[in-house]
Structure formats: structure tokens, C-alpha cells
Amino acid sequence: MTAPIHFDPTRLAAALARTPGRYPLFIDGKSVEAADGRAIERIGPAHGVVVSRYAHAGPIELDRALAAARRAFDHGPWPKTTAAERARVLHRAADRIEADAELIATLDVLESGKPIAQARAEIAGAVDIWRYAAGLARDLHGDSTTAMGEHKLGIVLRDPIGVVSIITPWNFPFLIVSQKLPFALAAGCTAVVKPSEMTSASTLLLGEILAASGLPDGVCNILAGDGPGIGAPMTSDPRVDMVTFTGSTRVGKATMAAAAPTLKKVVMELGGKNAQVIFPDADMEAAIDAAVFGAFFNAGECCNAGSRLIVHRDCADAFTAGFIAAAARVRVGDPLDEATRVGSLISPQHFDLVTGHIDAARRAGADVVLGGGRLAAATGHFLAPTLVAAADPAMAIARDEVFGPVATLMRFDTPAEAAAIANGIDYGLSASVWSRDFDTCIGLSRQIRAGTIWTNTFMDGAAELPFGGFRQSGLGRELGRNAVADYTEEKTLHLHCGPRTAWWTPRAA
Ligand code: NDP
After folding, report:
1. Within 10 Å of residue 140's Cβ, how many Cβ atoms?
2. Are 176 and 168 in contact (CB under 8 A)?
């Protein structure tokens, strides 16, 4: 029996003392409270105490935010501002985020239950993305063609698409908004942003940061509120031109439907159930470490979680033993402890959902060979890292996104079989292939239908590389060199110079 998770109350007191505790909405350049006085009180999932309070936007604030974003786009300076000036604002924002990194990381830890060391890395990654977006802002080009004959010239402009609704989930609160907002701003768009009602603090703080960085009023508006009440109208309102959404596949489908009547552009990052395929000639120590990381990083509450271990039969026993030994050593604990690698799940409801998946797998005959149950703790929702071994690929536990620290292990004999298992689900976000053989890695990477495939690594990322999913993992891409262009519309200027051939009326001699 393992010792209960230890909490040091001085750590929590210090973290709470560092944070403001109360966060207003940000509309038209000003911090505002909700007209009806409604508020959201967030109880930290790990510590069980109130960690933040924010105004809950209602229809009045939603309307004001959408109107401000529309006005700032149609009449404001931002879409016409030079790329150099937009880049300066984004760089200033990046500097301020960096200066406030410890505060932002602490907010995400308190509200989501993720480990502080990981949250710090996420904020550092976010700063890098804001700077990358600032660089891309300067490099936004249209196109031209001179090959249509001597009297014709084609110029293709890239205009900002307009008002963008940005809706984000709770698992990477500050990182995910940073994968969207700076690129929309770099393109000259205006935005209304809605974080998850469970993790809004760090996104609301961004309002102050942007105002202090010189972003004009109305260009970015940030609302805290619930999905059906605030998020849904943000996807259907005719004042919005584009929706970028990260969250569940279920709500992603509802978003597409809501955006259809006004034919908005929709970009979506949704769920995943990602394969880690391990061949016997892999560097087994590295593969085991990466597999444990891939499965349990962010307590598995990660669209990119490598939760399907597809292991060659010749090394499956050794891999399983190594995985169990490594996973059993992973430090699960107080997210405010620097040494913690896995924190609390986001809520009691989500804990029940995740354990419900494990219980269903047991009932279906799967073998839970590691973890599977709650870890003792005075507060929080801590689940032991869990491995379900020898699962049949057809079982629900091997196909459905669990969004918790739960991996399933399946065996294969041939690369074709590994590809079939990897592709045999509805999702296609990411995968990895582990082998020292180039043909094996590249061959399988080309067969797997997913947006990112790693070779001999897992969940590495860079702002330069596009991120997104095939099939029910999403639509469109974020990051990468096209990340700003994705927030633009192409406009063709077709020019004629010199005498034009008459359609009907001959020219007077
Ligand atoms: P949800 O889809 O429930 O919520 C995501 C966001 O959408 C939240 O801000 C939520 O608001 C909002 N929302 C809820 N209902 C509606 C609606 N009808 N219209 C518009 N917006 C709505 O997902 P979770 O936050 O629970 O996140 C977990 C899921 O997200 C997982 O399935 C995971 O796979 C996926 N995900 C995918 C990622 C990717 O990059 N592919 C990254 C992260 C998560 P509120 O919470 O305030 O109700």
C-alpha cells in the first residue's frame, strides 16, 4: 500500500498569496464585471479550496464583446496597422508573459491540478509561440502571376478574415490560447476568446497584458462563462467570421453545425487516441521512458496522449515489465511540488468518467496490470498510472479517448498489422514509431493516418511545425509557417493593362 499524497500547506498558502484571486472580464479594452453580478468560483482540483473567482459573462457582456470585436475590425486601426507594428505589440506581449510566467504557471496549476514544473515549461513554450507569431506577422505575403499574357496581371492579396471566436479547453489553459490568438492578431483579425469555465484565470489575465502591450481597444475581448451559454452563441453569431475551437469531438461537431448557417470558417483541434508502435530493435530504454511520458504526461488529460501501446510480440513481455517498473516510479503528488510529474485530475466528475472506462474494461475481460484505482490523499482526484495489458484492439478501452492516466497495450506481429491497429479507430491526431531501422520508421509513418508522427521520440513540438488531426481529431492546422495565413482570406486582383479585346462593341477607328 502506498503512502498518502503529501501536501505542504505552506506551498499552497504561498501560491495563493502570489495570485490576485479575482479576475474581471476584458471587453473593449477595459476590465469589467458582469452586469448581473454572476460569478464563477473555481475550487482547485488538487487542493479543494477556492483558488479563483471570475465574473460570469451573460448575454449583455457577450453582445458587448462581439460588437466591440466587430467594430474594431470594421472601423478600427488594427487590420490596417503595419505588420511591423503588429509584431511590436506581439513582442511586447511575449515579454510581459515572460515576466509574469511564474504567476501564469501558478494559476494554471491551481485551477487544473497540473504539476508546476510542467506548467512553467508550458508558459515558456507559449512565450516562444507569441514570438514566432510576431516573426510570421512580418512575413505575411500574397502572391502574383505574370504568366497570363502581356496585358494581364494577377495579384493575390491576403486580407485578415475578420472577427474570430476562440474557444479553449481546460487541459492546457494558457498554451492552447497561445496557439491561436497571437496568429489571429498577427493577421490583423479581432477576437472574442472564451476559456473553459474551470480554468479561465490565466486567459483573463492576458487582457491586461495585451492592453499594456499597446493592443487597441476592442481587438481582443475575453469572456469567462459556460459553453452552452457563451461558447455556443460565439459559434453561431453572424458578427463572427471564423471559429477556432479546441476541445472534445462531441462539442466540435456541434460547433460545425452551429457555424454552418452562416458558413464560417472552422478550425478544430479535437480528441485523440494515439499509437506508440514499438519494434524489437528499438532503443528499449528510451522507448519505455517515452511511452510512460506519453501515457501519463498531464495525467493523460491530453489530446496527444500516447495511450495505445502497440508492441511487437517479440519484445512485448520485456517492454511490459519495463513499462510497469518505470510507471510505478512516476511521482504522483501535490502539483505545487517541484518533483511531481503527475497531478490531480480536473474534477470529481472527470475522475468518475476515467475510472468508469477502467471498470468497463475490467468487465469486458481486459487485464489491469498496473494501477487502476484512486491514490489516497486528503484532497484531490489522484489516479494511479494505469496499464491495461493485452487488450483486444476492438475493446472500448483500446478505441475510446479516456483522457486520464490510462494506457492500453496491444501486440502485433507484422508492420501491416501495426498500421491496421493504429488506423483502426476514429481518431488520427498523432503517433510514434520506435525502431532503429529507417525503412521501418518511414514506411510505417507513411501508412499511419495522423497529423503528427514521431520517430524515436514522443510529444516533441515546435512552433515551426503544423499541429492538427486527421479524421475525427479535427479540421485544419495550428502553428507552422501557415499559422498566420490561416486567419486570412485570399483576394484576387485581376488587372488589365493596354488595349482590351472587345466582347461586342468594336473600338472606334
Ligand atoms: P469540451 O469540448 O467540453 O470544452 C471545450 C471548450 O468548449 C470549453 O471552453 C467549453 O466551455 C466549450 N463548450 C462547451 N460546450 C460548448 C458549446 N455547445 N458550444 C461552444 N463551446 C462549448 O472539452 P473539455 O474542455 O472537456 O476538454 C476535453 C476534451 O478536449 C477532450 O476530449 C480532448 O481530447 C479535447 N482536447 C483536444 C485537444 C487538441 O488539441 N486536439 C487539446 C485539448 C483538449 P466550458 O468548459 O466553460 O463549459
Report:
1. 17
2. yes
Residue 267 in contact with ligand 1 by CB distance below 6 A: no
pTM beyond 0.90, yes or no? yes
**Domain of 312?**
275-455
Three cell numbers written together for 101: 510566467
Q: Which one of 61, 111, 269, 301 is the catalytic residue?
A: 269
Concerning whether 303 is annotated as a catalytic residue, the answer is yes
Long-range contacts of 46-50 (CB under 8 A, 24+ apart): 46/110, 46/113, 46/334, 46/335, 46/336, 46/343, 46/344, 46/379, 46/380, 46/381, 47/7, 47/12, 47/110, 47/379, 47/380, 48/378, 48/379, 48/380, 49/12, 49/16
- Which ligand 1 atom lies nearest to the CA of residue 249? 32
Which residue in the list 303, 315, 401, 478 is annotated as catalytic?
303
Number of domains in the chain: 2
First to last CA, the chain: 102
408 CA to centre of own chain: 23
The number of CA neighbours under 13 Å toward the Cβ of 149 is 10
- Report the residue among 42, 62, 167, 267 best suited for mutation to probe ligand 1: largest number of ligand atoms under 8 A from its CB: 167
The verdict on 246 and 293 lying in the same domain is no
Residue 254 sits in the same domain as residue 279: no
Whole-number Å distance, alpha carbon 148 to ligand 1 midpoint, is: 47
- pLDDT below 50 — which residues of the chain? none
**Strand order across the beta sheet in which 50-55 lies:** 22-23, 50-55, 39-43
Same domain, 261 and 320: no
The pLDDT score that the predictor gives to residue 215 is 98
Instruction: Please report the pLDDT score of residue 303 as a whole number.
Output: 96
Domain presence at residue 375: yes
Burial (CB count <10 Å: 0-12, 13-18, 19+), residue 365: exposed
Coil, helix or strand for 32? strand
Per-residue pLDDT at 509 = 60
Cα dihedral value 46, 48, 54, 60, nearest 10: 100
Q: Which residues, other chains included, contact 159 with Cβ-Cβ below 8 Å and sequence gap of 6+?
A: 79, 188, 488, 489, 491
Residue with cell 511520458: 293
Q: Is 302 a catalytic residue?
A: no
- Model pLDDT for residues 380-397, shown as the tens digit of each residue: 999 999 999 977 999 999
Report which ligand 1 atom has the smallest distance to the Cα of 171: 43
The per-residue pLDDT for range 393-411, each reduced to its tens digit, is 999 999 999 999 999 999 9
Structural domain includes residue 497: no
